[in-house]
Protein: Minor fimbrium anchoring subunit Mfa2
Organism: Porphyromonas gingivalis
Amino acid sequence: MNKRKHMDIRRLIISLPAIMALWGGLASCDKMIYDNYDDCPRGVYVNFYSQTECAENPSYPAEVARLNVYAFDKDGILRSANVFEDVQLSAAKEWLIPLEKDGLYTIFAWGNIDDHYNIGEIKIGETTKQQVLMRLKQDGKWATNIDGTTLWYATSPVVELKNMEDGADQYIHTRANLREYTNRVTVSVDSLPHPENYEIKLASSNGSYRFDGTVAKADSTYYPGETKVVGDSTCRAFFTTLKLESGHENTLSVTHKPTGREIFRTDLVGAILSSQYAQNINLRCINDFDIRLVAHHCNCPDDTYVVVQIWINGWLIHSYEIEL
């Protein structure tokens, strides 16, 4: 009896290396197990980080909690679509994007797409990277309120899955830089005798995005932002917007409510870029804008006020001469 037990244990010990070798072969697509590599699972591991041109080191934003990740081939056709929940970015963490075939791929990723957005139809093997991925929800001309949320976008360098028959790796690794696609904009108007009579608005045609992070053509949409009186001669409004960039009608306006007359209207991004101090306000590095407009009484037909100075993040970017 004991002799048989010893024999069974010995057989088990002898067979363990064989079992481990078999498991390792299955896990790594060993040629000893597979006749070829056609059924071998493959893919790209992606590490996500965030770093602007102005930052010395990468960061790993804690507010990124969800990732929608897409892989497109060299022809711009979608080959893999994945959603990862409860994300926690770190230098060591990677996410696997499964792929079936050898070839060149680019990874596009969006962080924090939620129920504020409508997602377009997605079909593996048909959808192109130039198609619209999502649209910010809106009611008429007003966008849904995205205060307290952030949106992020990343793209990887082109990566290549090579033929494993030639000794290539089963999986490859890359990184993708998440850039924030939301802005927080505080606008104050000073030197108004009756600040309760004025309304601040901010609109942009940036509510739709393609898979590749570019803005799709859309009508201008107003972002919610209540104008409040914050002093004897000051009113203020706060807005959370999607990415403000040149060419998309980023219109900031101030209206005198009793008459309906606009006392100020400008393309916000255009005003920044046309300023001699534009180099101090790098739109690639800044997501928070503190805008101060200084008003002055003018010799106008309706005896009202106009804006004579524009300050952004402490910089006087424009001043205007008026007839007093």
In short: The chain is about 10% helix and 40% strand.
